[in-house]
Amino acid sequence: MTSTTVEAAIARSREKAASIEHEPGRHRMLTGDRPTGDLHIGHYLSSLRRRVAIQDRGVDSFVLIADYQVITDRESVGRIRDSTLSLLADYLAEGLDPERSTIFAHSAVPQLNQLMLPFLSLVTEAELHRNPTVKDELAASRRPLSGLLLTYPVHQAADILFCKADVVPVGKDQLPHVEMARVLARRFNARYAAGVEVFPAPTALVNDQQLILGIDGQKMSKSRGTVIRLAATEDETAKLIRRARTDPEPMITYEPERRPEVANLLTIAAGFTGRAPEALAEELGSGDGSALKNLVVEAINEGLRRHRERRALLADDRSQLLQVLRVGNAKAAAVAGETLAEVRQVMAMDY
Ligand code: TRP
Predict the structure, then answer these.
(1) Cβ of residue 93 lying under 6 Å from some atom of ligand 1
(2) Short-list 206, 147, 198, 150, CA closest to 178
């Protein structure tokens, strides 16, 4: 994506956010996660809380557990059932409400997956190869490019378009996918529906918060053990934060470029306390790293106490979680079935 397309997407995102405030009932949200492991504080601060807020504002909501995306860049499904139920426990613990949000899994909605077929006809191989997110994932996976990795942006477009969502809360890295969904909506309408708007173009609701890093100041990594999971106990959280890297400077200041490790800790504390990182830094002043770490431990453990209590209860009852998921799957399948019927009709394939 060029910088002008990114700027345009950010401008649309602002307009959409304003419209959600004024007329929440006119919108539909779809967003989702890959079930590859437990959610962590980065997910919590940048996406989970926001989704719940949008739901609570009154926006009709769809939340996808993107299980087919797990096999885009890895050999096996891993502990997918555990990860799926863990994700669901976090969703419910934070307040996603199955009455107001349709929570479902990719693999359970064949009608959604079938939409991928006509959509695939609307892109060229060259366009797929240009997708920056696909390129990054390919580089990180160190495996040959699979057909699914190359085409999953089309699948993700089907995720968004099957329910005609107009609001897609995502991080900046996902912008190329939302752009793909916009292009596919437009092309479908033009090519197969004689210009009738079967699919409205969705808008990314871009999250422009500071990215939360691992305790070593680098991208979070499960294998390096630098991730703070929502499911971690208070003690585990304290131990991890005490191991966090800082720097030897005597004053605490918020300088993300120059002091990424200290800034990351301040960003975390700010996220959980609702205060500005600069103000927290000023208060700590000449305090050493350990005062900062105490503050962060306290902020996370306080901020997550209610979530963790509820999550523990929910995670214990796997059959109830599965039941919630089955209800969501059925609701999503009904919506996807209607869209697919419409698609077959405009394509004259409704025999
Ligand atoms: N690709 C997203 C991620 O890796 C997950 C996802 C799948 C998604 N389908 C989506 C996000 C549709 C938004 C809309 O996090």
Answers:
(1) no
(2) 206
